[in-house]
UniProtKB/TrEMBL annotation:
This is Chaperone protein HtpG. The gene is htpG. It is found in: Cytoplasm. It comes from Micromonospora aurantiaca. Residues 28-185 form the Histidine kinase/HSP90-like ATPase domain. CDD domains: HATPase_Hsp90-like.
Amino acid sequence: MSNRVETLEFQAEARQLLQLMVHSIYSNKDVFLRELISNASDALDKLRLESLVDKELSADTSDLHIEIEVDKDARTLTVRDNGIGMNRDEVVGLIGTIAKSGTAELLRKLRESADAAASQELIGQFGVGFYATFMVADRVTLLTRRAGQSGGTRWESAGEGTYSIEEVEDAPQGTSVTLHLKPVDTDDNLHDYTAEWTIREIVKRYSDFISWPIRMTVDKPGEDGATTREEQTLNSMKALWARSRDEVDEAEYKEFYRHVAHDWADPLETIHMRGEGTFEYEALLFLPSHAPLDLFSPQGRRGVQLYVKRVFIMDDCDALMPNYLRFVKGVVDAHDLSLNISREILQQDRQIRAVRRRLVKKVLATLKDMSAESYRTFWTEFGAVVKEGLLEDPDNTETLLELVRTASTHDPAEPTTLRDYVERMKDGQTEIYYATGENRATIENSPHLEAFRAKGYEVLILTDPVDEVWVERVGAYDGKTLRSVAKGQVDLETEEEKEKAEAERQEYADLLTFLGGALADSVKEVRLSTRLTTSPACVVGDAHDMTPTLEKMYRAMGQEVPRVKRILELNPAHPLVTGLRKAHGEGGDTAALTETAELLYGMALLAEGGELADPARFTRILADRLARGL
């Protein structure tokens, strides 16, 4: 086997992150040990699982453990495991690059953050804990051999943009990471990480719940004054979820959350539950306090960890949690499943589906019972995801509707519940009015809201992409139809106003016919509006038409949908519209009237935040008209 040493460069993003680490972007440097132990624990979990699945795997699983070794004279600290290990390509892929989406965004936020705690949270979102070793070490050496393979790999770097890598013959199974420690510097929170009490304290604080033994050989004074060497286990190894709630303090819950979620912030809520009866299980779930940067990424982490009788089975077990609750982190330990159960079997397992229903109901009940302040934080971070449940989970639609919070015209700052909206409805109002759009400002300035605002009707302001879909799917709340202000006919008029509107329709009949023909390629109908008070025109859809935003969404996903023509509504009280009727009645220039119709339609599109089909033609006609008016 060749012992050729190669020197490679880190991926650009990894190199930048290394620089941030080396230059101490946060003060609590002790966490590097927690991250190494967490990585080692994951490697042992993976080997245990792979040995159960692959009976032919040539690997020693008789004494799986994590070992910490210090050399005070050489000032090195080594964290070693006999887990799954890595081959050369895995070393380059996992350490030489950051194979995560949104890394550039992470780096930008890290640079902008002057707050040490905020920096820790951002790092935790990406699980890049290995890089934390360069806060305390001048040089890091990694030796690894994948279980079942004969050759190993040695990796080394000083964290300055390059690393060396070579193949070796004598590497033991698993991975060891050796840190060549920087000098102690108490002013910079660099402690003596060769000191036994320091290591004990860090392990107890961060990793006591790890299910594998964490061992270290320590000096033990004898009765005659002689010192002997003794191997000790530093952690209790008791599964936190198997203990009763009374036996666990809040600090232990927080540390366990950081371990399973790879998040350095505290959880917003903790859910500790036990299922008994025909199918026994324990669950320890957490609601995060902030959304991860990969929340909407298809490659983002999903679901909770599954254990069977304290044996780790799989990460991201999506069979236990629906996609709209993908932010929930934690562990479910089932007592009655096979150790070699697959994802495919899980999806069909009747007992797993029953557990899933219970977990979902418990999570939704927890959300319902949260304090107003905590729930406000939660909804800000995860509200858009929770609303996906209105499309995916018909069994819990009523509960989810009670959880919805949305902006409305009632209050410029505070969101409202659907229940509160209904309680504020005007006498005789039978529908819940809503408007969708990219942002609040665009919606509030939309001509569609003019009549509702003038008559004092509250309108819900929906700005998440999923809002376009769930309001159509759900259709009603508490017996009240959900009604878009931008679709169908609006009936807000008194009997007197209706009589006046009918007379105007007769008066404008010829103009409406002309405009319908002139704009036939763009609109399906031109009619007088009952929703406008100040704008000359607006564009609306039929009651059951697809919205333009929804059309865009489908096309962005690669789905071809037919183009939906909309309806142009005119305000008969606006001078531009009355002038257009007069000019048409007097037999004005047809070409000029047609151009005016195009301008009117274009302005209506722009007013609602829409896009012009031919912006160049619109601006040319507008410029000609402006020039003639000077």
